[in-house]
Amino acid sequence: MSEETKKTKIGYYPGCAITKCSTSEEYGTSVLGVSRVIGPELVEIDDWNCCGASSAHATNHKLSTALSVRNISLAEKDGYDEVLAPCPMCSQRLIVSQDDVENDEKLRKEVEDAIEMPISRNVKVSNYLEIVKNYSMDEITEKQKKKPEGLKIASYYGCLLVRPPKILKFDDPENPKTMDDIVKAIGAEAVDWEFKTNCCGGGFTLSKPDIVIKLTHDILEGAIDAGANAIAVACPMCHANLDMRQQAIEKEYGRKFNLPIVYISELIGLALGLKPKDLGMDKHFIDTDSVIDTFSDIEK
Amino acid sequence: MKIKITTKELKSDFAKEVEDRSGIDVKKCYQCGKCTAGCPVAYEMDYMPNQIIRFVQLGLRKEALTSRTIWLCASCVTCTTRCPKEVKIAELMDVLREMALEEGVANPMEKDITTFHKAFLNSIKKHGRISECGMLMEFKRKRPKAALKSVLQDVADGSQLMMKGKLSLAPHDIKGKDNIKRIFEKLG
User: Fold this and answer.
1) Who contacts A231 (Cβ-Cβ below 8 Å, separation ≥6)?
2) Residue B137 lies in a domain
3) A217-247 burial, b for 16+ CB within 10 Å, e for fewer?
4) According to CATH, what is the number of the domain A3-126?
């Protein structure tokens, strides 16, 4: 990779769920840990705010748009042309809001008035898989220290990385491949399965736990039946629903899964030889040792 | 399901109002049902997603805005993605929810969902970011029954989360929280 790309600095928008002391902090920990080894350099956007997530767009479109685009304007003010939002709820909200103000002059003016800043037209918002694919695939191969043996991964994308496809323009919405390519690049097997882009119930985890338990059960069952030893995710909500609720799911359906749910960033980190604890893998509810133990040093 | 449609409803401009607010033209829908076929939450809904579109097409304002369906939509956007006529169904659910709240007709059976949204937004309004603990407390205070329903699970989650250092008690205020407050005052 050229020197110029290596120096690329990307604005980092963690969002609420993956910052320190939050329910999915290990996602942020592992994304940052991996970027320190293989780049690109990530710098947190100053004074970012919550994008409003489901609760804003489900109840107030203008408010949702303003909360999202304020962060893009802050990123532009800080001098970034690209922003990484590892949480797909955030990246989807930011990108859709950007598209909404681009196509509605009246909305743009109202939102600019509310956020008290001009709206940026030039900042590209990316999800984590895009960043890895566009900047780091060669680096992973170059700097890989450990390789998994016999590890079968079900790559789970969920909803918000790929939908709505016309606006997000990322991968195939019915059968995405980007995460599978990363899984294969580190030497694990990417299993073929049917639930890649099924919904986990997302933000209903507190308000409608019954729905979440049904949908996540189907996903766990699909992964196990396809022969996976673990599910890889790139979304804090998917992770929380599949990992934290897994014991409740087992109880409800009378089937033991004990299936580790790992972030794709954690898998990359393990391949780079980072310590599981430094990747936050001790923070999971379902033990991840069975995944960690498949990794061993590459003889060079 | 028996719904009597009045001429007044048929001649109403509900569909036009929805289009003006959202740019979504429901007339394009020819009721193929693909949205419903792919909807992961259809099994819980009182009306199927394509029926909600039909209500809007026919001017059945009350049926659409008081449905449980609009709240049960998980915003997974599978419907919009697969619609052969490019009707943005998930986004239509957003605008119908917004109208239901404005008119005070949101279905009381889904109060757990509306209360959760409110608690979530209140946390942003106060701090600029989500205080998970504060939001959870507000939700539990306002919907004790819902909290009770899954109390064992939630308490287990909460205490395990704390043990793992994943649930912060202290909210984090951003510097620009006054700006966030003004955003809520202008648009909220």
Assistant:
1) A153, A154, A155, A156, A219, A220, A223, A242, A259, A260, A261, A262
2) yes
3) bbbbbbbbeeebbbbbbbbbbbbbbbbbbbb
4) 1.20.1050.140
B:76-105 residues touching chain A, CB 8 A cutoff = 76-78, 80-81, 88, 90, 93-95, 97-98, 101
Reported ipTM: 0.94
Instruction: List the structure tokens of B101.
Output: 């709240």
Side-chain half-sphere CA neighbours of B36 within 13 A:
17
In chain B, the number of structural domains is 2
Domain that residue B180 falls in: 109-187
- Claim to verify: residue B99 and residue B52 sit in the same structural domain: yes
Q: Name the percent of chain A lying above pLDDT 90.
A: 91
Q: Do B184 and A63 touch (CB under 8 A)?
A: yes
In a domain, B1, yes or no: no
My answer on whether B124 and B146 are in the same domain is yes
pLDDT tens profile A203-250:
898 899 999 999 999 999 999 999 999 999 999 999 999 999 899 899
Listed residues B57, B85, B106: the one ending a domain: B106
Intervals of CATH 3.40.50.11810 along chain A: 137-297
Cβ <8 Å between A61 and B174: no
A54 contacts in B (CB within 8 Å)? 75, 117, 120
Asked if A55 and B116 come within 8 Å (Cβ–Cβ), the reply is yes
Q: Which residues contact A127 (CB under 8 A, 6 or more apart)?
A: A84, A85, A86, A88, A91, A161, A170, A234
State the span(s) of chain A assigned CATH 1.20.1050.140: 3-126
Contact B13, B20 (CB under 8 A): no
pTM: 0.95
Mapped onto helix, strand or coil, the DSSP state of residue A258 is coil
Give me the residue from A58, A115, A215 closest to B75, CB to CB. Answer: A58
Closest CA to A155 of A256, A264, A239: A264
Tell me which residues of chain A, numbers 127 to 186, contact chain B at a CB-CB cutoff of 8 Å. Answer: 159-160, 163-165, 173
